Amino acid sequence: MNPVRKHAYIELLVVSLIWGVAAPVIKFTLGGFSPGVFLTYRFFISSVIALFFFIFFGLRLPKDRKTLIFLILNGFLLSTVSLGLLFLGTNKTTSVDSNLISAMAPITIVIAGIFFLKEHVTKKESVGLLIALAGTLITIIEPVFRNGGSFSGLEGNLLVFASVIVATATAVLAKKILRSGVDAITATNLSFVIGFLTLAPFTLPKIFASNFQILTSIPLKYHLGVFYMAILSGTLAYILWHRAEKSIEISEVGLFAYLYPVFGAPLSVLWLGEKISLPFMIGAVIIAVGVFLAEWKKKRYDTSSK
User: Fold this and answer.
1) What value, to the nearest 5°, has the Cα angle with vertex 144 and ends 141 and 109?
2) Which residues contact 239 (CB under 8 A, 6 or more apart)?
3) Of 22, 25, 36, 159, which is the most exposed, with the fewest CB atoms less than 10 Å away?
4) What's the CA gap between 79 and 71, in Å, rounded?
5) pTM of the prediction?
6) What's the pLDDT band for 300 if we cut at 50, 70, 90?
7) Worst-scoring range by mean pLDDT, 172-176, 230-234, 251-255?
8) Looking at residue 33, what DSSP letter applies?
9) Helix, strand, coil share of the chain (percent; to 5)
């Protein structure tokens, strides 16, 4: 295997572990902080880290105006919009559901390629995509079955799925930006600074009005969750993700999202005491079948074409 590709795979495996664990960590930490305060607090820590990166390595902004605009737009979508939707959604659903829905990113990336990049897919791949989407739909509406017809939790799943759609757009944007010569460290750290600057006007007045009690009155265990999301799931994971995305195809980067539930679901059950319902299991199995059909065919094609 090509050493560059092998290194990218190792980086993405680490990212999958970090982001798989992130869903239950987010769910737990939201027990102490509201989504807005949580995100602002997280982005503040990441922005401080970014400042040190900029001091020691420099802020290498692209000279091309179009690339710079894409870089800023990607930072806003990646931080404020995508993570904002994810946190709001996870606050209203289970971390198990959040993890499985987030793992649908590779499928949405393929679909985006079909509609916006006119990429070709085989009939078997199309069937696999449709099956996976059907499984995702079952997972999204699973709270309705779990709660005896109540729509409680459905809103959260829809918000998480919306975050996946936005993340798909950022994956395409990031690939173009990185190919234009923007380094992974700059792309990562700038996105967190943008996230803090765009959220601060809405949340800092509340923090100041409470005389910082919103932060100081919260037990240490919830602060540790914020630091995990800022340092490991934030700065470290996104730098590794951007580095890997620069080295290999975007479709292969997305494949590692399938590992999120593998790492996150057991922790959600054992740590948070969440239960895995029958509709969830049905949806997960259907998604797995669809993914297998879509990806297995593609792998066969890739292998035969070498």
Assistant:
1) 10
2) 184, 185, 188
3) 36
4) 12
5) 0.82
6) very low
7) 251-255
8) S
9) 85, 0, 15
Q: Identify how many contiguous H helices and E strands the chain contains and give both numbers.
A: 15, 0
Q: What is the dihedral of CA 217, 220, 221, 226, to 10 degrees?
A: 90
Task: Please count the structural domains in the chain.
Answer: 1
Distance (Å, rounded) from C-alpha 140 to C-alpha 126? 21
> For residue 152, what are the contacts with CB-CB under 8 A and spacing of at least 6?
143
pLDDT above 70 covers a percentage of the chain that reads 86
What DSSP line would sit under 219-269, residue for residue? -HHHHHHHHIIIIIIIIIHHHHHHHHHHHS-HHHHHHGGGGHHHHHHHHHH
**For the range 221-228, what are the long-range contacts, defined as Cβ-Cβ under 8 Å and sequence gap of 24 or more?**
221/32, 222/28, 222/29, 222/31, 222/32, 222/33, 223/32, 225/25, 225/26, 225/28, 225/29, 225/32, 226/29, 226/33, 226/38, 226/41, 226/42, 226/45, 227/45, 228/22, 228/25
User: Alpha-carbon distance 226 to 31, whole Å?
Assistant: 12
User: Can you tell me the mean pLDDT for 260-278?
Assistant: 87
Task: Give the tens place of pLDDT for each residue, 59-98.
Answer: 888 888 899 999 999 999 999 999 999 999 999 988 888 8
Packed helices 123-146 and 105-116: angle between N→C axes, nearest 10 degrees: 130
Provide the domain limits for residue 248. 3-304
